[in-house]
């Protein structure tokens, strides 16, 4: 096990990150700094490279060039499980909860990196497993509570609407108290009321110890919750700034935001 830890309130620094598959350049020379204590938005047209960027941060994709650093640790060569152990957590574009498990049990899966024997052990009817399961359930309930949905702890995914499922997924992503939380299109498939609830939940997650990055096409949500926004276009960083600065940037309006009104 790595003795390295990322101290609280460290920014995540990305320097000259590039990614290509064969001859296709997916990300080109991305340099930026993601601050703890802020909600950062990552926006851009379809195919701009947003998910690929997340995949580079979590180690699913190996960048062809560039560095990723946090708290003095070089991360770009670490495999995904090492980055997870250092506190990287993410949610995916499509809801991926296990239908056979309750919401609390689904959230407990997010404690894998903290579990001594792995989460499966905590589900087995052994004394050590029972103790660990009780501890994990309490942590899962805490995460659900933090997002205001503790009442669905014992429901199964099929019983719940998309908005609650999305929040349950985020509960699973935060239950291990990550240092870096990457949310990929959390508002996808949600109606306007669910999106409003999501925005309120995201604001509650803002914390001095957390780098929180949201990829999203819902511009109302992004402009509402984000402190800072980075705009990608065909794999390049096109612009960055506060929501007001990004909204007023003519290049961003031309390649992306202009589409919103059409
Ligand atoms: N594993 C891969 N192999 C080849 N090309 C890939 C791979 N992953 C991503 N790409 C390509 O990289 C480009 C960026 O894709 P990516 O999914 O990162 O964009 P995105 O900004 O997240 O798009 P969207 O908003 O539609 O989700 C696309 O052209 C995509 O086809």
From TrEMBL:
Keywords per UniProt: ATP-binding, Cell membrane, Membrane, Nucleotide-binding, Transport
InterPro entries attached to this UniProt entry: AAA+_ATPase, ABC_AA/LPS_Transport, ABC_transporter-like_ATP-bd, BCA_ABC_TP_C, P-loop_NTPase
Highest rank taxon of the organism: Bacteria
Tagged with keyword Nucleotide-binding: yes
Family matches, as CDD domains: ABC_Mj1267_LivG_branched (cd03219)
One Pfam family of this chain: BCA_ABC_TP_C
Segments forming domain ABC transporter: 12-259
GO MF entries: ATP binding; ATP hydrolysis activity
Cellular component terms per the entry's GO annotation: plasma membrane
Entry protein name: ABC transporter ATP-binding protein
Organism for this UniProt entry: Parapusillimonas granuli
Source organism phylogeny: Bacteria, Pseudomonadati, Pseudomonadota, Betaproteobacteria, Burkholderiales
């Amino acid at each position: 096990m790595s003795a390295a830890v990322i101290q609280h309130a460290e920014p995540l620094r990305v320097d000259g990150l590039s990614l290509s598959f064969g001859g296709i350049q997916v990300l080109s020379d991305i340099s930026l700094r993601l601050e703890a204590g802020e909600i950062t938005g990552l926006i851009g047209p379809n195919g701009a490279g947003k998910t690929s960027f997340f995949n580079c941060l979590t180690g699913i994709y190996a960048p062809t060039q560039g560095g990723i650093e946090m708290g003095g640790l070089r991360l770009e060569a670490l495999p995904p499980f090492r980055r997870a152990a250092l506190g990287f957590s993410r949610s995916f574009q499509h809801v991926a909860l296990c239908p056979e498990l309750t919401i609390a049990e689904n959230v407990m899966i997010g404690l894998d990196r903290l579990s001594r024997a792995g989460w499966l052990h905590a589900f087995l009817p052994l004394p050590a497993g029972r103790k660990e399961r009780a501890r994990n359930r309490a942590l899962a309930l805490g995460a659900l509570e933090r997002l205001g949905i503790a009442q669905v702890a014992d429901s199964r995914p099929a019983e719940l609407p998309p908005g609650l499922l999305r929040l349950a997924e985020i509960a699973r992503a935060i239950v291990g108290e990550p240092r870096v939380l990457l949310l990929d299109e959390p508002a996808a498939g949600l109606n306007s009321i669910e999106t409003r609830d999501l925005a309120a939940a995201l604001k509650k997650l803002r914390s001095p110890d957390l780098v929180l990055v949201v990829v999203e096409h819902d511009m109302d949500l992004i402009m509402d919750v984000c402190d800072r926004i980075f705009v990608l276009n065909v794999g390049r960083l096109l612009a960055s700034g506060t929501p007001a600065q990004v909204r007023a940037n003519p290049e961003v309006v031309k390649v992306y935001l202009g589409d919103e009104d059409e």
